[in-house]
Amino acid sequence: MASSLLRNPTFSPSPSLPTFSSTITTTPLSFRFPPSSSHHSSSSVSLRLSCSISDPSPPLPPHTLRRRRPDYIPNRISDPNYVRIFDTTLRDGEQSPGATLTSKEKLDIARQLAKLGVDIIEAGFPAASKDDFEAVKTISETVGNAVDENGYVPVICGLSRCNKKDIQTAWEAVRYAKRPRIHTFIATSDIHLEYKLKKSKKEVIEIARDMVRFARSLGCEDVEFSPEDAGRSEREFLYEILGEVIKAGATTLNIPDTVGITLPSEFGQLIADLKANTPGIENVIISTHCQNDLGLSTANTLSGAHAGARQVEVTINGIGERAGNASLEEVVMAIKCRGDHVLGGLYTGIDTRHIVMTSKMVEDYTGMQTQPHKAIVGANAFAHESGIHQDGMLKHKGTYEIICPEEIGLERSNDAGIVLGKLSGRHALKDRLTELGYVLDDEQLGTIFWRFKSVAEQKKRVTDADIIALVSDEVFQPEAVWKLLDIQITCGTLGLSTATVKLADADGKEHCACSMGTGPVDSAYKAVDLIVKEPTTLLEYSMNAVTEGIDAIATTRVLVRGSNKYTSTNAITGEEVQRTFSGTGAGMDIVVSSVKAYVGALNKMLDFKENSQTKVLSRNVKVPA
Question: Cα separation of 367 and 388, whole Å?
Fold first, then answer.
């Protein structure tokens, strides 16, 4: 079903907010499906993009050309229809419980976001910890200086609270990028002023103005300011404080619905009111940041963009605090599909063919799996089980799909009838990986191929789900401090379970330990602990079968917490919080899968040392494309 935002476009009777219009003056981009013959078998699923309902123009190629990205100027955009994509996966997204990322993983994701074409990467909260600072600095030095052939390089942004120490730290982390930005914030709602800040409105205005001015004095020409909890703040107070920070030198004003309480009509009206009543607003970019507490973050973001915001803050897979943020893939594809027809000609600079790969990378690195029915990137997003739907798809793809998999980097063409098994070669596996959205280098392909052959020897048919699990287990793993070599388990009803585990350290030296426990996993984890010698608490343990059948690959996810030295500062509350670390493993043996996940979580934890230098160097690291 289409969202109410698109079906019923009139927000309110207020004249300050424009209503959606299906009448456009420019020629719309139209994406149509070529009709399918009704005699095709159900296994033939060749798809093409469709964002048009009735335009009779001929089919376009699977990957449509993007419009030219306007030259970057911090406080203005030459094309009024262009919407900047501000990705905060590495900052707000990492605040999800258990989503802690290592420095290498952050760098990998930042490089992938640059391939995706995001305009701004909020690389982190540099004042949170030494590791966060070094990670942001490394991203600034590498990704922030990688200019492509079209002159594109992402802005690298660091978050800071409204105090000099945070702002100075953020600047020291991002200043090495070609386009550095400082993003500072302070709360403006009555409830935050009274209970959290315990400050008057006059005091908050003075702090905001002085800190924006201080950020500019450091040499930063691109400063973003956010009035936290703007969705519950008084309008007149917002007009006043935003007007003051504009005078102090802010170039972007971000309007956050911090607790996700507004409806699309309310949030759109808020943006329109700010645009109409804030002095100097014509000299800055208006941005949105919508939380998903009521499930309306994407709708609110689109409403804000239609009302005049020209930057939207989003995360991959919608991850973030509590219920998450507006999802990049949902917002971008909504603009791509409906920007011309309904949203007044809005467009972005995103290369949507990298969406699937980016989604999978974030999913595997954070350990936060997307639900099967997640829009755009969920496992069921392009699945059709209903007989009526299948019949329609066979007759014309446009009957039940508005987006084709190729547009987001997911090839799904089974016409060749290739089934992977133990006799399949490297080329067939590589082709299937490409269709699934993975582009791996030769070394990664070689590793996956031998894991694939091992599984294929035990299973008659290797499914796509099996392949995805193997890629996750090999490619998207943290930097190895410890590596599992061998494991032997004895268990049953006749006595305590015993485990012998052999691990290799970073220097390749082998370590072996034996332990007893209440079960095979417990004994194995205790043996690992004897080797690693790091106090750890297991918080969560879960296991799923990738496919049906007794020979299915098992995937395991664990969440662990270390000692008090693994802490960082929460960007919103300012409190010291203990970090949690997730790990995943896959294998046909459930104990092996479990130990791999546990070792992966320990590797993440050990990589995160608050007072140690980051292991990530400013060098070319191989990243899955």
Answer: 36
Rounded to whole angstroms, the Cα distance separating 188 from 190 reads 7
Alpha helices in 50-177 (DSSP H): 103-116, 130-141, 164-174
pLDDT digits over 231-276, tens only? 999 999 999 999 999 999 999 999 999 999 999 999 999 999 999 9
Q: Locate tokens 């011309």: which residue?
A: 340
Instruction: Give the tens place of pLDDT for each residue, 360-396.
Output: 999 988 988 888 899 999 878 877 655 655 566 566 6
Integer angstrom CA distances of residue 177 from 148, 171, 223: 14, 10, 14
Burial grade of 392 (CB within 10 A; 0-12, 13-18, 19 or more): middle
569: how many CB neighbours lie within 10 A of its CB? Answer: 17
425: which 2 tokens? Answer: 């070669």
Q: List, as one string, the DSSP characters of 502-563.
A: EEEETT--EEEEEEEESSHHHHHHHHHHHHH----EEEEEEEEESSSSTTPPEEEEEEEE--
Question: Do 127 and 153 touch, CB atoms closer than 8 A?
Answer: no
Low-confidence stretches of the chain (pLDDT < 50) are: 1-63, 413, 415-417, 610-625
Q: Give the pLDDT of residue 228.
A: 98
- C-alpha torsion angle, residues 584, 589, 591, 593 (rounded to 10): -10
**Helix, strand or coil for residue 286?**
strand
Q: Where are the alpha helices (DSSP H) in 342-422?
A: 355-366, 387-395
